[in-house]
Amino acid sequence: MTAGKDGIIQIYTTEIEELLQIAKSRVTRQLTAEEKMKLGCWIGRNVR
What we know:
Blueprint: E1 2-3, E2 9-10, H1 16-26, H2 33-39
C-alpha cells in the first residue's frame, strides 16, 4: 500500500494468480515472433 500527498491510496497485490489475471485482462494483442525474441519470451518455448 502506498499513499501520496494528494491523498490517493494505492494497493498492490503480490499474489501471482491475481497479477496474471490483471495482466490477461489488459492484453490487447499477442506479441509477434520478433517481439518475443527481443523480449526473451522464446527461451525454452516454441516461438509461433
